[in-house]
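Researcher: Batch entry, complex prediction.
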Amino acid sequence: MISDTRTEIQHYDAVVVGAGLAGVCAVYQLREAGVTVRVLEAADGVGGTWYHNRYPGARCDIESLDYSYSFSNELQQEWHWSERYAGQPEILRYINHVADRFDLRRDIELNTRVVEVRFEETGQRWILSTDTGKVYSAKYVVMATGVLSVAQVPSMKGLDDFKGQWFHTGDWPKDGADLSGKRVGVIGTGSSATQLIPIVAQSAKHLYVFQRTANYTMPAQNHPMKPEVEKEWKENYPERRKFAWASGFGHNQVTNHLRGKEMSREARLAELENRWQLGGLYMMRAFKDILTDPEVNEFAAEFVRNKIRNTVHNQETAENLCPRDLYIGTKRLCSGTNYYETFNQQNVSLVSVKHNPIDTITPEGIRLEDGAQYPLDVLIFATGFDAMTGALNKINPIGRNGRALRDVWAEGPKTYLGLCVSGFPNMFVITGPGSPSVFSNMVTSIEQHVEWIVRCVTHMKNSGMQTVEATPQAQEDWTRHVTDAASRTLYAKSQNSWFHGANIPGKPVVFMPYVGGVGNYYKKITDIANNGYEGFNFGSASSGIGQPAESRLTAAAGHGRD
Ligand code: FAD
Ligand code: N01
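Model: Structure tokens for the complex:
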């Protein structure tokens, strides 16, 4: 770092915004590559998702042995996960351990929110302003701001007058919230809600669950870590990581390569039961065509509905909990413990707000459109996030020619490979729109992106290049490819989800993640780098003029496996 005392600008090779799993990985790898780096994080601790989402019951839906860094064999050998799916406190401890173990904190500045990011054409560098007043200049800016990091509280009449306490799952108080003996309302029935509800129901006086769209919740089948499983993983970590990186979703998943169409009814049912017992996201790999064939998808959906009917005693409640207008898997499957069972408790009520929406938050609780009142002491918004683009749009980086990202993305995000945006040289996005991101074990996707970025930065250092920038054509081609990949699946038909941005009023409805598979994607970005960074222009320090990479974006994605 070089400090410029006249302007009080601190200069680095790279500034990383955000210190979640992505930012922590990036600072480690960039430092290893000899790059001077500073991480700026708004919160007063590292951890990102696992710092902010402290709601009771928060845990991962990818097995922890998989949902963890692969970059250090020592780390993966010495860390012990206590459960198959670790809870939020344990994951947060893990990220803090990584920060300490690799002495990363000296390069991380907490309590520092980046409020402006601007590309300075003359110096060909990024200038970052923060809410502390400090200003940073960097050749590279790495956006590790998270794709589920901007909590979304829907605008609801009367919230300011509510006399009780209210919380959002994604911004849970650090000291926790005492819900015991209270009348609690939860709005939402997505992944956060389905984890939270069974825990809150254990101590609340009464719990009202306000459900607009019923979701598919799989039993997580969580349990304490089995020593023999841990031993096997630790003995075979290199192979297991390799498998995950080449797989469809970025983890060690058991896949049925048969199409549901080709299987008998009995064989399909047996496979679905097997998946139900395996738990969590395993259901998504029950049949090769589960996400492409509506009839096969409906067969799996009806299997889950029957599970709900067999679990929930009150048949009206059971029917209300059965998802109907949603293909299974086209919203991230929820993975919970005792979710449906919880509705058999006397102190739990399901309130359907699909046809009778919430009208007002009154000082005492919630009033629906038909006038029904629900008195509450505590209101919990499990209402999700401004996903994929929220954190980036909030910063609204200003690229070449003064163009703001929000304007460039006014009709939906466009990226090249989900990593770069044309007109924003040397700005890298980790797990951005147009990459597998939320469609994957995100630690795998994060590590793949960080590897690619570090390689690109090293390439530029070695070849004396000042800027790298996606060409408009490569970006158009990739964005079309992302849309085409989704259009071949049922995702394109289920537009009412945050994958499309449909949960945020006014947000363009565009399918954002890349569904072509983690393995295919990794092969693609690696091939592009191997072939001289197809689709990118490089600029030298003296000329500042973009030079085309050796060849253009060519073939479609390669072949991953899982
Ligand atoms: P984040 O963890 O979101 O970190 C981004 C950081 O950037 C935050 O700390 C934020 O404060 C900071 N930041 C943002 N804007 C600014 C700014 N302007 N200035 C400074 N700092 C800023 N994925 C899975 O694959 N498996 C799971 O099991 C799983 N479970 C999840 C459970 C929950 C409750 C949620 C919400 C998400 C889950 N995810 C899961 C997705 C999860 O977000 C990723 O797995 C991963 O943690 C993302 O890491 P990240 O570092 O990219 O982003
Ligand atoms: O958010 P969501 P989330 N009135 O957007 C409802 C990851 N994650 O925080 O569907 C009434 O999924 C909304 O209803 P509808 C994971 O990737 C993982 O639960 O819009 N209801 C929906 O039910 C996940 O997908 C884990 O009709 C309103 C809910 O709120 C992502 O984060 C755990 C409403 C929002 O669901 C987001 O999950 C947690 C309104 N005005 C999160 N507005 C794991 O298990 C919204 N809703 C790993």
